[in-house]
TrEMBL record:
The keyword rRNA-binding does not apply. This is Thioredoxin. Residues 22-145 form the Thioredoxin domain. SUPFAM superfamilies: Thioredoxin-like. The keyword Transport applies.
Amino acid sequence: MADPLHIVCPHCDAVNRVANERLADQPVCGKCTRALFEGKPLDVNSARFTRHISRNDIPVLVDFWAAWCGPCRMMAPAYAQAAGRLEPRVRLLKLDTEASQDIAGLFGIRSIPTIALFQGGQEVARQAGAMDAGSIISWVQSRMRAA
């Protein structure tokens, strides 16, 4: 067996070790026993954002959004649909830029919606503007191949 991947639980934020070949086997958290992947984006605050970005060994896609943003609300169902197709190979997060202005400022988010792909705790790609599910999936897959 190759080195296990570290996967942060979307429920209790515990870091779990999961064999790469077992990601699709519906793994559960060793601490809270809930599913590690549910096929939907995870809403995070600043602290949870940092933990998921820094401790997940799989790529993490973040939707920077705000409740008052019309295009953000329009893209939300497409982002959720993309989560169902990209997990368990990619973790999808949603970060409200109004509630987490520190993170939005740290990453220089100037327009929303903006999606950013992180690998190994580092941002590797960014795209501003609303996208449909197919475009989100294609964008992520092409960036993962390039990385």
